[in-house]
Amino acid sequence: MLPSDVTEDASAVDDLATEHVLDSPKAGTRFLRGSSMRLAAFGAGLAVSLGATPLAVHHLGPAGWGQYATVTSLMFIVAAITEGGLGQMGVRELSVGEARARDSFMRDLLGLRLTLTLIGAVAALAFSVAVGYERVVVEGTAIAGVGLLLTNLAGTLALPLAADLRLGWMAVTDFLPQLVIAVTMVALVASGAGLLPFYAAPVAGSAAALVVTASVVGREITLLPAFRPGRWRTLLAQTLVYAAATATGSIYFRIVLIATSVLSSKTQTGFYSLAFRILELTTIVPWLIVSSAFPILVRSAWNDPQRLRYALQRLLEGSLILGGWFSVCVVIGAPVAIHVLDLGAQQFNPSIAVLRILGAAIPATFLLATFSYALLSLRLYRQLLIVNGSITVLAVVLSAALIPEFGADGAAVVSLTLEIVLMLAYMITLERSRPEARPSLAGTERIALALALAFGAGAALAPHPVVGVAVASAVLAVTLLALRAVPTELFALVRRR
């Protein structure tokens, strides 16, 4: 069965010719429904990942898993730098620009992304050689570069879907790569493969996403990239500060893992990598939700400031609730999560403490996702560049100070510190630059109280993590309802369902 908003694609395109879908009353409903579908797709992807990742972790061991995660983190940094905010800029331009200019813009963007990705992949390969990684890691970096190219192409082609709030198809392309990667990893474990073939699993997932995305948007835009350096210079000149701001805001977290691989042992890197993988799965959620709302934020910042503040207020409240719940679950349930991914072998027991430290950072991650996209929608690029550049420098300094002596635990403390500092810096930046857009903190104290009660109830049952998580979740739900701290839009969505 196709996503429900797929059947609305034609009407959405027609709306663009008259009233833009982002200006219509349907925008909020489409966002809530579409983001719910993407969350469901994320949940399904998480389920298939949990079926395959423990097998791969157990098969590769701490050292092998650490080497695998090192390459994926290196590719993430390269992706952030070469993407440089071009994706968000593309959504922004497609959200407020004229429909007839889409095709030419997309062709230029495709050509630019292809070129930058190839340069970045070569640079990553050179880095892996320069720092003295083992041969299997260097070869894995080369394979992962191919996957990065396919991923960036699929992501660029999906921009019209995001701009038009056709989030059902995006849910499909969110889930499909996870399914393909999981199936590939299971097959590799069953065949007794070494580390190197595992680097090809994300390549297969990216290829599947590219095929589906191209088949959907190919009816609307040309799939041929344009290699016009003159046009590229115009694009980059318009987005240089924007690109630098978003790139530096994406790489700081991965710098910690790369620093661990260079400054500590393969085993310590493995301990941190497994905990980081769990954190990564949970922190996809805030960026998925807020990025789905980004077209609405951009459009509102352009023509309706009151609507922007309202949207940010609801995102803030929802982020605090979801982020707090995720944090409670991760901190209390860390032993179970690690043992499940380790298949009970207890090779990764030191990762439990690492995960608990990282879990405490989750609420900050949810909140900074909201504030980050608020600053982007308001085009406060220079302020973002200053803040993100500073946090990148702080990541390097703290990593050098803590990781050599404390290993994985030190890396976790660095990550926790960075998330909190960055979230507070975003809040202060929004308050000073556009105080009229800053959402109110009134009412968040009720959410904070509910989270504190939930964590206390769950922590009292710490010897039984599963029971503790269940009790904490129940206490949180009951308290939020009793305090009327849940955004009314969520109730409306449930009633319509």
Written description of the protein model:
The chain has 497 residues and is mainly α. It has 2 domains: 4-441, no CATH class; 448-497, no CATH class. 83% of the residues lie in helices and 0% in strands. It contains 18 helices and no strands. Residues 1-18 have low confidence and may be disordered.
Our measurement of the CA-to-CA distance between the termini, rounded to an integer number of angstroms, reads 18 Å
Unreliably modeled segments: 1-18
Oligomer: single chain
User: H/E element string?
Assistant: HHHHHHHHHHHHHHHHHH
User: How many structural domains does the protein architecture include?
Assistant: 2
Approximate helicity band: over 70%
- Give Rg in angstroms: 22 Å
Query: What gross morphology would you assign?
Result: globular
Overall pLDDT: 82
The share of residues in extended strands comes to under 5%
Structural class: mainly alpha
How many distinct beta strands? 0
List the total number of helices: 18
Describe the main β-sheet briefly.
Answer: none
